[in-house]
Design goal:
Length: about 120
């Protein structure tokens, strides 16, 4: 099953939360994303079933190797596009929101070409 934009957002949220604190629970993800706990519960079940996360005996969420790879890629794109937009004068809140949209639709090939072009400047 292909990851949806929503499920990708959950993976990225888990990664960001893991960078902030070592233990991440579903409730942390719900709070971070501003989603209801039942929505997060459904997403966690799907991500676990698809092998992107594991949930331990006490309910802590852990990215699997493939989940971590996807989350890192999304986070890298998010940071890159946020930085580029803010450097062009876009306010931080707008840049964050738009970077979140861009990160999901741009191919890896296009992302690499954009990044290379900007490095050459």
């Amino acid at each position: 099953m292909k990851l949806t934009q929503s499920l990708e957002d959950y993976l990225e949220a888990i990664l960001v939360l893991q960078m902030k604190k070592s233990e991440v629970r579903s409730v942390d993800v719900a709070e971070y994303l501003g989603f209801a706990k039942p929505s997060v519960h459904r997403a966690v079940k799907l991500l676990k079933k698809q092998g992107y996360i594991a949930v331990d005996d006490i309910g802590l969420l852990h990215l699997t190797a493939v989940g971590s790879e996807v989350a890192q890629r999304l986070y890298e794109r998010h940071q890159f596009f946020t930085d580029q937009l803010t450097s062009l004068g876009v306010d931080k809140k707008t840049a964050e929101a738009e970077a979140c949209k861009i990160e999901h639709v741009v191919s890896q090939e296009s992302f690499e070409k954009i990044r290379q072009a900007i490095k050459k400047e």
